[in-house]
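Reopening this ticket.

The earlier resolution said the output was attached, but the attachment link was broken on my side. Pasting everything inline this time so it's all in one place.
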Amino acid sequence: MKLFSRAAKLALSQRGSNPRHFWGWLNAVFNKVDYERIKAVGPDRAAAEWLLRCGAKVRFQGFERFHHDYNGLPTGPLGKFKIQAIDASESCIMFKGFDHLDGLEHVEEIKFNKCIYIEDACLERLSSIQNLQESLYMMEVVSCGNVTDKGIIALHQLKNLEYLFLSDLPGIRDKQTTADRLQTALPRLDLNCVEKPCALLTNSISLVQQKWHLYFVLP
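Inline output:
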């Protein structure tokens, strides 16, 4: 910890007095992929450490609550705990850390809400991962200003996706075409276009029970 503190102070001094540069550097450090760590503890544990380090939360199979405390992650035999859901709301996860997702086989839900580093390349990378194409069926992308039509359309590769909630995405320019392309690729989606934000829908991921919908709540 002392070594990290000295490194942080050095980085801050080298970048002048602008704290924005420092936090950008620190977030990049948090997203660095340690492939040896993945081999040592398994993909789920390594991914959980990455996500919590960046301010996200994870829920493991067999658990009702999300884990958000890095030091409180459950311990046990290699491969015992499998990530089932990821809530990356207001986290600093970025593209360079997405290699952590490659080995995850049981992720069913992902939520990106107010993620300043989430961009089209992140959604394209996520959608290209074969394991997630098979397991992921619920997803939210809300208030991620760097996401455009290109990133949303890339989600069509998630062939088992049944629920997608989109809101406050100013980068979406042609929502009808984007919706049509998703609907064509994923016919199981029940497409509903909602013009104005609805407080109820912001929490709809926990309310959906039997019928899944694609909601557009865009400007």
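Reporter confirms the inline version is readable. DSSP finds eight helices and seven strands in the chain. The mean pLDDT is 82.
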